[in-house]
Design goal:
By secondary structure, the protein is of the alpha+beta class. Strands 4, 22, 23, 24, 25 and 26 form a 6-stranded antiparallel beta sheet that branches. Strands 5-29-28-27 form a 4-stranded antiparallel beta sheet. A 4-stranded antiparallel beta sheet has the order 6-7-8-9, with no helix packed on it.
C-alpha cells in the first residue's frame, strides 16, 4: 500500500515505517538552524575553479523570488514576503510583497543600499525591465510600473493584464516574463506572450510552456521545465505549429532534452512531500530524484569562461542544489548531459538554501536567487507527513530572510561598469556584438524602445560582418523591432554561409512579404534554389515558413522535405503546419512520387495526418477522393489502414478551449481531438514495441488488444505508464517474459500529463478494448502522489490493492 505510514517518536527520534515491502527507515533529523550569510556560504560545495560571493541579504531583501539588472546596473528584486508566513499560509493575501531596487555604489559586487520601488503587492513573482520601468507580475494582475521623477519609486502603475496570474496559486500560475530575442515577452505556466507597440500592450496566444522559470540560449530558443523533469526546450520557433487549425502537432515544442532525474544532494532532504514513500529518499535520507526542478537558465555571460557558455543550469530547491547540464545538438534535436559525474555544480548542507531562480548581469557572473526559507511547499499541497516534519524541525520559523549570490572564477576581478543608459543609440549598436549576452539583450531592448531610425544604417553594417554571428543575429531582431520591412538585406542573407543567419532571414522575410505576391514568389524561388545545400535546421525553417510565401511554388519544396524526413516527427509536424487547404494536393503528389508506395511507419503517420486534416475541414469532395483511393485495389494495405484511421478522427477548428499551438487547454474524456492526439503520439513513441495495431511485436512488447492491463483499472494503467514495468506479465492468459519481450518497459514520467492521458485514452478506446477514456487531471493526481517511485513496477505489485495517498 503506497503512502501509509506510522510515526513513532521515542528518545527524540522520528521513525517512519512505510508499509510496502517491509521498508523501515529511522532517522534523527536535526533542527534546521538559521545561518548568517557567511555561515551559509561555508556550507556550499561548488565546482572547482569558481567562488561564490554574497551580493545581498536580509534585511535589505526578504523572500526574493526573481531579479533583473537594468541598463544602469541597478539590481531589481521581487520579494514574495507573504508566501507561507506560517505552516497554514495564514495571511498570504496580505499586501506585503514588494519590488526593491538595490544599488552597488562602490562597484565591488556587493549591494550597499536599497529603495522600495513598488510595495503593497500580493505574492509578486516575476519582473521584466522595459521602457524605463518594469513589468511586474502580482498574484493575479500584471502591471507596468515606472518612476518618472528619478527617485527610484514608482509613481505610475498601469494595469496590463487583469487575468495574468489565473488562479493565483504560486506554483501553478504564470511567471517568468522573459523578453526574448524575437522581442516578445514569454512566460512559463502560460499560454500567452506580450509585446509593447507604442503605448499599447499586445497579448497573444502561444504554446504552453513549463512550470517555473524560462530562459533562452544564444539562438533565442526557449528553455523551461517541470518539477519532475529538469529541462525542456522548443526545437522550433514559437507559434509556427499552430498555423494549420486542422492539425495537432505533437513535437517540436516542449522537447525533453534530458530524461535523467537522479540528483545528488549532500544533506538529508526529509522535509519533502512523500518522503515516507520508498524510492523518494535514499538510506541517508537524501532526495533521489527531482521533486521541484525549477528555473532553468542558459548561461550566456563572459565571466565564467568559454566552457560554460551555452550550459543549462537547473535549480532544485528541495534538494538544496543546482545542476549544470552540457547541451549537444544533432540536427534539430537538443540533448542535455550532467556536467559532473554524480556531483552537482553547487550543493549545500544548509537546508534553508533554496535556489529558485538564476540570472546574469553586467559583469557576466552567474547570479542565484536564494529564498532562504524553511517551507517552500505551498499550503494546499502540504501533506500530513510534511506538515509534521516541518513543525518538528522548526522549518516554519525564521521567515522573511533571503540572499542573492554571485558565482565567478576564483581569480576574477571586478571591472568598472559603464552604464548603458548614459550612451547614445549609435553607441549601443556596437554592444550588439558584446561577448556578454546581458549587454546584447539590453542594447537590443534599448534600441527597439528608442525607436530611432537613424541607427538603421549602422545595424545594416553589422549584418555584413560575417564573422560576428551573435552581433548579426541581434541586429536582425533589432531591425525587426524597429519595424524595418525592406526585404533586400534578408534576401541576400538567404545564401549566407551561416545557417542561423540564413534561417533568421527566412523568418524576417515572412513579415516583409505580407501582402506582396511578387515578393512571395521571388522568395519561394530562392528557397527552392538553396534547398539542396541547406542545413537540416534551415530546411526545417523552410517547412515552417512555407505558408507565408508562394504556396504553389513551395509545395514541391514541402514534398521534397517530407520525402527526405518522413521518419522525423518534427518535420512531419512542420510540413503539416504549412499545408492548410493543400492537404489533398500533397496527398495526390505523394501518391505519384517514387517510393511513397513502399511502407514505413513515418509515411503511414503522415498519410493519416493528411487525412485527419482533410476530414477536419469537411470538404466532401476531397473526402470522397480519399475513399476512392482506399477502394482502389492497387492501394497498398498499409496505406489503406492509415487513410481509414485518418477518416475516423477529426481535428476541429481551434476554439476558446485550445492553446496557441492547437493543443486543447482542457479535454473531455471522449473528445475526438484528444483521441487523435493520442493516436499520433502512440504511433510516434509506442508503436515501435507494441505495433501500429496494438498487436505487440515479438522480442519487444506484449499486445495491447484484449489486454486486461489496458481495459482494466485506469489507476493501474497510469502507474504502469508513469513508472514502467519489469518482469513477466500475463496478458489474456498468455505469459510473456524474456526473451519473448524486453525485460523492462521504460517509464514515461517525462511526458506531459495531457499527452500521456491522450495515449492511454486512445489505447483504451481502440481495437475493441471498449474502456473509458482517462483525463489528464487523473494523471496529474496520480503522478503528483507517486512521483517518488523510481523503480519499475512488477506485475505482482500492480495487481495488489493500490491506494494512492492523499
Amino acid at each position: 500500500m503506497i503512502g501509509r505510514y506510522i510515526q513513532a517518536k521515542a528518545s527524540g527520534y522520528l521513525c517512519i515505517i512505510v508499509l510496502m515491502g517491509g521498508f523501515l527507515a529511522c532517522s534523527h533529523p536535526p533542527q534546521a538552524p538559521l545561518l548568517h550569510p557567511e555561515q551559509e556560504r561555508q556550507t556550499f560545495q561548488l565546482a572547482p575553479g569558481l567562488r561564490i560571493e554574497l551580493v545581498a541579504a536580509e534585511p535589505m531583501i526578504e523572500d526574493p523570488v526573481a531579479m533583473a539588472f537594468d541598463e544602469a546596473g541597478r539590481l531589481w528584486v521581487v520579494e514574495m514576503r507573504g508566501f507561507m508566513p506560517d505552516i497554514d499560509g495564514t495571511g498570504e493575501e496580505e499586501k506585503v510583497g514588494r519590488v526593491s531596487i538595490l544599488l552597488d555604489q562602490n562597484q565591488d559586487g556587493r549591494m550597499d543600499s536599497s529603495v522600495v520601488f513598488l510595495d503593497s503587492l500580493v505574492l509578486p513573482r516575476a519582473i521584466a525591465i522595459v521602457d524605463g520601468g518594469a513589468l511586474i507580475a502580482e498574484n493575479i494582475p500584471l502591471w507596468f510600473a515606472k518612476d518618472t521623477n528619478g527617485d527610484l519609486r514608482a509613481d505610475i502603475k498601469t494595469l496590463v493584464d487583469p487575468e495574468y496570474g489565473g488562479r493565483g496559486i504560486p506554483e501553478h500560475s504564470p511567471n517568468g516574463l522573459l523578453l526574448a530575442m524575437d522581442n516578445w515577452i514569454y512566460n512559463a505556466k502560460s499560454t500567452h506572450r506580450y509585446r509593447r507597440q507604442g503605448q499599447e500592450w499586445i497579448k497573444e496566444e502561444t504554446e504552453f510552456r513549463g512550470q517555473w522559470g524560462i530562459s533562452q540560449d544564444n539562438q533565442g530558443r526557449l528553455f523551461y521545465n517541470y518539477n519532475w523533469s529538469q529541462l525542456h526546450v522548443d526545437l522550433v520557433p514559437p507559434n509556427y505549429l499552430s498555423q494549420n487549425p486542422f492539425h495537432l502537432s505533437t513535437s517540436g515544442i516542449d522537447h525533453a532534452a534530458s530524461s535523467a532525474r537522479t540528483i545528488y544532494p549532500i544533506r538529508p532532504n526529509t522535509a519533502v512531500n512523500r518522503g515516507y514513500v520508498p524510492g523518494t529518499l535514499d538510506g541517508r535520507g537524501r532526495l533521489i530524484e527531482y521533486a521541484s526542478a525549477a528555473a532553468p537558465f542558459v548561461y550566456r555571460g563572459d565571466a565564467l569562461g568559454e566552457e560554460y557558455i551555452g550550459n543549462a543550469f537547473v535549480c532544485e530547491p528541495t534538494g538544496n542544489l543546482i545542476r549544470r547540464n552540457l547541451l549537444s545538438e544533432v540536427g534539430w534535436l537538443i540533448s542535455a548531459k550532467q556536467a559532473r559525474t554524480r556531483k552537482e555544480f553547487l550543493a549545500s548542507t544548509d537546508e534553508r538554501f533554496r535556489p529558485i531562480l538564476m540570472n546574469s548581469g553586467p559583469d557576466g557572473g552567474l547570479y542565484i536567487v536564494d529564498m532562504y526559507k524553511g517551507i517552500i511547499q505551498h499550503g494546499p499541497y502540504m501533506s500530513t507527513y510534511l506538515r509534521e516534519e516541518s513543525l518538528e524541525r522548526g522549518l516554519d520559523q525564521h521567515i522573511n530572510k533571503g540572499r542573492i549570490w554571485r558565482i565567478i572564477p576564483e581569480d576574477w576581478k571586478q571591472s568598472p561598469f559603464e552604464p548603458l543608459a548614459e550612451l547614445s543609440p549609435k553607441d549601443w549598436v556596437s554592444f550588439l556584438s558584446h561577448p556578454n549576452g546581458w549587454h546584447r539583450d539590453q542594447v537590443q531592448r534599448l534600441l527597439v524602445e528608442a525607436g530611432d531610425p537613424s541607427v538603421i544604417p549602422a545595424l545594416l553594417e553589422v549584418l555584413d560582418s560575417e564573422s560576428d554571428q551573435l552581433g548579426r543575429l541581434h541586429a536582425m531582431w533589432t531591425l525587426d523591432g524597429l519595424n524595418y520591412r525592406q526585404p533586400e538585406p534578408y534576401l541576400s542573407l538567404l545564401a549566407d554561409s551561416d545557417p542561423l543567419i540564413q534561417r533568421t532571414a527566412i523568418r524576417l522575410l515572412e513579415t516583409c512579404a505580407k501582402g506582396n505576391s511578387s515578393l512571395q514568389s521571388e522568395i519561394a524561388m530562392q528557397l527552392k534554389q538553396i534547398l539542396g545545400l541547406a542545413s537540416e535546421k534551415t530546411r526545417l525553417q523552410m517547412a515552417l515558413a512555407a505558408n507565408s510565401f508562394d504556396r504553389s511554388k513551395m509545395l514541391p519544396v514541402l514534398v521534397e522535405l517530407i520525402t527526405d524526413y518522413s521518419a522525423s516527427p518534427v518535420m512531419r509536424d512542420a510540413v503539416m503546419s504549412s499545408l492548410e487547404g493543400q492537404e489533398m494536393d500533397m496527398l495526390e503528389t505523394l501518391l505519384a512520387t517514387s517510393h511513397w508506395d513502399l511502407q514505413s511507419a513515418g509515411k503511414a503517420i503522415f498519410f493519416e495526418m493528411l487525412t485527419v486534416s482533410v476530414q477536419g475541414r469537411g470538404n466532401s469532395e476531397e473526402i470522397a477522393q480519399i475513399e476512392e483511393i482506399i477502394n482502389n485495389e492497387d492501394t497498398p494495405d498499409w496505406m489503406d489502414r492509415a487513410l481509414l484511421a485518418g477518416l475516423e478522427r477529426t481535428i476541429p477548428q481551434k476554439d476558446e478551449n485550445q492553446t496557441g499551438n492547437g493543443n486543447p487547454a482542457s479535454r473531455n474524456d471522449t473528445d475526438s481531438r484528444e483521441l487523435s492526439l493520442g493516436r499520433q503520439q502512440y504511433l510516434t513513441v509506442c508503436s515501435g514495441c507494441h505495433g501500429t495495431d496494438g498487436e505487440g511485436i515479438r522480442r519487444f512488447a506484449p499486445p495491447l488488444v484484449n489486454s486486461e492491463w489496458v481495459s482494466g483499472d485506469e489507476k493501474r494503467l497510469i502507474l504502469l505508464a508513469l513508472h514502467g514495468m519489469q518482469g513477466p506479465v500475463s496478458v489474456n492468459g498468455i505469459v510473456y517474459d524474456v526473451p519473448e519481450i524486453l525485460p523492462v518497459m521504460p517509464s514515461f514520467a517525462v511526458m506531459d500529463n495531457g499527452d500521456l492521458a491522450a495515449i492511454l485514452s486512445y489505447i483504451r478506446t481502440s481495437w475493441g478494448n471498449g474502456a473509458s477514456a482517462i483525463s489528464s487531471s487523473t494523471v496529474i493526481k496520480i503522478r503528483y502522489r507517486t512521483q517518488g517511485k523510481i523503480t519499475p513496477w512488477t506485475a505482482e505489485e500492480l495487481l495488489q490493492d493500490i491506494t494512492i495517498p492523499e
